[in-house]
Amino acid sequence: MAIAVQRARTLRVSVLVFVLLAVTGLFYVKWHPYYDRAFVAASQHAIGHSILMGDQASAPAPSWDAALGYALAYGKAIWQAMLLGLLLGSGIQALLPVNWVQRALGRRSFDSVVVGGLLAVPGMMCTCCAAPVVVGLRKHQAAPGAAMAFWLGNTVLNPATLVFTGFVLGWHWTLLRVVLGIPMVFGLGHLANRMAGPSQPVLVETPLMEEESRTLAEVGARWARIFLRMTVRLIPEYVVIVLLLGAVRAWMFPHIGPEIGNQWFWIVALALAGMLFVIPTAGEVPIVQAMLALGLGGGPAAALMLTLPPVSLPSLTMLSRSFPLRMLVTIAVAVVGFGILGGAIAAALGMH
């Protein structure tokens, strides 16, 4: 009886700690800064310079300086959110019972996909910062579709980015993103469940907080171990790929000017480049704004708007142990497809 009472107390405190971490962390890192930035976007019709190439028409030539410069600028923009993502991802595994996550997100049904997508809305993280949270959800038996919808929804359904897009680029760009973003998040989440199949296990590993952690000290120690393990496993490969992308971004994004119009080649090429490249939250808004000012066609701009945020090569790598490779490749290709569709719509409507 005493052990049961102690476990119940430990569970209550653990859940409270997780909720406080999520609310205060998101308020400090996301909600409050983005609230202030919305007023900047409304008054100045801009939220900063393009992290991709600044005010220039092309990115710097491939070099170590280009790699380090981008990595430092990107790291400065996302380090707080990445730390929060690691704390939340490890906290899910250490502080929340498996059966809670499983009941909310474990069913391979469209309902769980919807729940996962809606839970992502207040997160507003970039694709890489959301990845550790997705790792935690998958470790705690969230279904592939629910976890996928959560991952994509953080960027695609980010309400702050939608507001920034409207004030900076125009509300027709926000409408395009919403119209294609909703089926991207929930449709690809449903596809992930279908690809997983009903007979496959949700996870390889099933950590059970109730059996391993009876006291708050044990919970804290386990949280620290999981946090350290996730950091060591995810961050080094992530940094290497960010450096690589920063170095070769001039090859991925050519000299921007009026010569890059609404040709199919450029829509497809920039959709593919946008899917592979990595940016901080809402970074696509100043990138597209700068490129449109240089004369980029609306079609390639829309392709970038839809493919830069949802996935990237670093985030796909971070999730390589949480989803089958075939599923991740399919999702990445589907994101490119949505970008091409968005580019075609923008070109047909003459968006600029």
What descriptors fit this protein?
globular; single chain; 0% strand; 352 residues; mainly alpha; 15 helices
So what's the overall shape? globular
Total number of distinct structural domains: 1
Strand percentage: under 5%
What is the terminal separation in angstroms? 68 Å
Classify the helix fraction into a percent range.
Answer: over 70%
Average pLDDT score: 92
Give the topology string: H per helix, E per strand: HHHHHHHHHHHHHHH
Count of DSSP H/I helices: 15
Over all CA atoms, what is the radius of gyration? 20 Å
Structural classification? mainly alpha
Q: Uncertain runs with pLDDT below 50, 5 residues or more?
A: 199-211
Describe what you observe in this structure.
It is a single chain. With 352 residues, the protein is an all-alpha fold. It has one domain (2-349). The chain has 15 helices and no strands. It has helices at 2-44, 64-95, 98-105, 110-120, 127-139, 144-156, 159-168, 171-196, 209-212, 216-252, 264-276, 284-293, 298-307, 313-318, 325-349. Helix 1 runs antiparallel to helix 2 (64-95). The radius of gyration is 20 Å and the shape is globular.
How do the helices and strands line up, and which of them pair or pack?
Layout: H1 2-44, H2 64-95, H3 98-105, H4 110-120, H5 127-139, H6 144-156, H7 159-168, H8 171-196, H9 209-212, H10 216-252, H11 264-276, H12 284-293, H13 298-307, H14 313-318, H15 325-349
Helix pairs in contact: 1-2, 1-7, 2-5, 2-10, 4-6, 4-8, 5-6, 6-8, 7-8, 8-15, 11-13, 11-15, 12-13, 13-15
